[in-house]
Amino acid sequence: MKPGVVQLRDDPLASSESGAWGAGAPARITFGVLGGSIAPIVKHVGADPQRPRRWRKAVGRDCEDPEVVASLLLARARRENPEGVVLFSTTRVAHVHSAAEATARAGPDDDRALDAFVGLIDAELRYGRAER
């Protein structure tokens, strides 16, 4: 019997099988998308002089900016859990507004940027391939 509601950690820098067992649940809540990911991504992008330019060319955004990275991570979480709830916490009301605006205005260019961003995370950071 599958649970009616599942709550799953969604850490984009770690491998996880939790999405597979949570996929069939009528209500899916994800959390943890920002907390442990923003700083390591920003640090990684800035750690090599060529990397910021390469990431900007691929993604079309400044991935040394924590707010840009946060918006991309939230977009990724919404794409992974389109019918569910994506939880995040912040102490700044402006971040809530930014997240809502980013979700509302997502379009085809955002899909391409998000695909590039996720591809770079998978290639360079995920599964412990680089220092976190």
Summary tags:
132 residues, 9% strand, 6 helices, 3 strands
Can you offer a commentary on this structure?
This protein is mainly alpha-helical and 132 residues long. The protein has one domain. It is 51% helix and 9% strand. The protein is built from six helices and three strands. It has a three-stranded parallel sheet. Helix 2 packs across helix 4 and helix 4 crosses helix 5. The longest helix is centred in the C-terminal third of the chain and has 17 residues. The radius of gyration is 15 Å and the shape is globular. The termini are far apart.
Q: Please state the structural category.
A: mainly alpha
| Radius of gyration computed on alpha carbons | 15 Å
How many individual β-strands?
3
Chain-averaged pLDDT = 84
State the helix count.
Answer: 6
Global morphology: globular
Question: Uncertain runs with pLDDT below 50, 5 residues or more?
Answer: none
Query: What's the order of the H and E elements?
Result: EHEHHHEHH
Query: Approximately what portion of the residues adopt beta-strand conformation?
Result: 5-15%
Element layout with pairings:
Layout: E1 5-9, H1 18-22, E2 27-31, H2 38-46, H3 51-59, H4 66-80, E3 85-86, H5 93-104, H6 108-124
Parallel strand pairs: 1-2, 2-3
Short description:
The chain has 132 residues and is mainly alpha-helical. Helix content is 51%, strand content 9%. It has one domain (5-125).
